[in-house]
């Protein structure tokens, strides 16, 4: 094998580490990229490099952006009194696609899990508690996945914030065992509008 | 949206153009990359850039490599008298994984197709005919997919080369309607060993 084939194999191995791609689909993807190396592969490499160098977590909410503070936290158009709690950035994106929530977010970075020894300190929970205290938050909307760990986490946060602000949760429309990022925009909208005291 | 989010959206759009990835799996892949930007995203961008800049088709056989001539065509260890005909590079890779064929290859770049107006000139068929004439080829092994277009192409090539050399084809083990790149190595080995006159 010459250096070229080794480079291609290295690329396939890296591609195969992406979620949803195995060795076979990674090979297919790489061949497709090589066929379209000027119109797809080079722009993709450049876009990836740029995002790798510039993307960072917002120090306030955990969203992905390029600055210290993300565009949502920095926007004056977003209500400061309402914070929507999500497990990860994919869920924040799903909420934003529904375009129904006009407040701000807080990305936990996962859920509490006794099995995986993930406690509040491993998540962005202490930061949430200081945000509620410091930012004049009046309502926390729990938009966690309807899984056991998601609901355990929701209860924990509701207990911690009891008395500090109103705590609601997405209600109608989230199927049992379902994950937010799989829902259509209409379902998310309905669930937000029908939110209830937690 | 700040510039960062626009960059991320552009990256997601490019990723969604890969075979097997839709918008949702592209979003998941990009978030995964951002989480692992130093250990996965940067190396992947670099590997992609390098392959985009260096990969090219072998002028002889159509395989992908970095030089004008690929490593297989350049190797003195590969028999010059036998050429295995495949539709595309994925099939060549599948044959190489089986590690049973020690000759050289010829990548057609597709199959004849009346429907898509693909004739011999659109494929690497004229080049094959001159290779057989110039390289002292004694046997052509047809390893085309068992599809209607694949078999039409096989018959066309067999007719063109009648009298010039022995023409065989992979036989036993290739399922009807099956594609080479989906087969396991053992099946490919059995099919090659049981090849018959075409
Ligand atoms: Zn933020
Ligand atoms: Zn070659």
From TrEMBL, chains A, B:
Coiled coil: none
Name of the protein described by the UniProt record: Recombination protein RecR
The UniProt record lists the keyword Transmembrane: no
Domain of life per record: Bacteria
Keywords: DNA damage, DNA recombination, DNA repair, Metal-binding, Zinc, Zinc-finger
Pfam families: RecR_C (PF21175), RecR_HhH (PF21176), RecR_ZnF (PF02132), Toprim_4 (PF13662)
Domain Toprim: 81-175
Main function: May play a role in DNA repair. It seems to be involved in an RecBC-independent recombinational process of DNA repair. It may act with RecF and RecO.
Organism: Pacificibacter marinus
Cited Gene3D superfamilies: 3.40.1360.10, RecR Domain 1 (1.10.8.420)
SUPFAM superfamilies linked to this entry: Recombination protein RecR
Phylogenetic lineage: Bacteria, Pseudomonadati, Pseudomonadota, Alphaproteobacteria, Rhodobacterales
C4-type Zn finger ranges: 58-73
Family the UniProt entry places it in: Belongs to the RecR family.
One BP term from GO: DNA repair
One MF term in the entry's GO annotations: zinc ion binding
